[in-house]
Amino acid sequence: MTDRTALSLDQEAPARPSRSLWATAFLRLKRNTLAMISLAVLIFYILAGIIGPEITNHHYAEVYPEFVKVPASLEGYPKSDEIPALAESALARARLDLGQITVDGGTIRVEASSSREIDPRVTRYLDRSDLFANSRIAETSADGQSVVMEADVERLHFYFGTDANGRDLLARTLISVRVSLMIGALATSVALLIGVLYGATAGFVGGRVDNFMMRVVDVLYSLPFIFFVILLVVFFGRNVVLMFIAVGAVEWLDMARIVRGQTLSLKNREFVQAAEALGVRSAGILRRHIIPNTLGPVIIYMTLLIPKVILLESFLSFLGLGVQEPLTSLGVLISEGAKNMRGDAYMLFFPAATLTLLLFALNFLGDGLRDALDPKDR
User: Domain ABC transmembrane type-1: where (predicted)?
Assistant: First the structure.
């Protein structure tokens, strides 16, 4: 009776599918609210960097001489009370006596007179300005010495304000996010490639080879990093892509040490010994068994290396050794904002807040991945 009951219970119990290591880690990551919020913020930054500069109304290098250092505002520029003065400035060289100037919605009316007949082409002075378009003569007196000109007012929106050269700060912030993320991903990829291969080889081969390879790492650690930066700038010039590929080639030292330590603990495991007994070559063991099992700590360190590289880029750009004009990065914008901090604090606030939020998201995501992939918590 008991055996039949147990058998029936075994038959009725549904088979639970086994989860892989990465599926389990993802479920643990989903329970971490802060890490998931950080992941959403990071995805938003990536999308903003990719499509943001393309959908804004301004190019990041376009200069508006009439709007230098205008503060951030949801209202379009020029403001209604500023339009008459700007129209007078645009018509200053027309040699006309200006009368009443009125603004009706998006249209401006300018009354003008002269001691001689007015050439209808005088409206070109308004068209030459970036503020007015479709200028025309609405009314003309019988003697042609008085006219009423009309023009459409081109309203521009600067939601983050403009910089010291009259460029839209929002467009420049979006392009700087793209540049900073690209540099962080590029340098981190190079460091990942070199560090993983170097550390896994040193840890798996062991012996004198391991000792020699790690002494090379110690020697590179002892050299001042800024010395390498100066050499890279001299050698690669102002090519920012090549320079940060070289920066990634220097940042691999920590990655190599982490992977070596993981490899030393993995090479004596049963599955590695079984592969050796079956005659699998060392390169195959590294590629199929050692490196895949070190990806957990590597991914965690990678999420911490990206903000480190972004901060490094910001530091170099702050010193004038990084991204050059007209291209920009968050470090360049922060450097420019620091120079104008007293009178125009918005120029520092927006890029600094953007960089701070990005670094927080990357660090919180790294902490979440560490908790999800930590073998002690499984």
Answer: 177-366
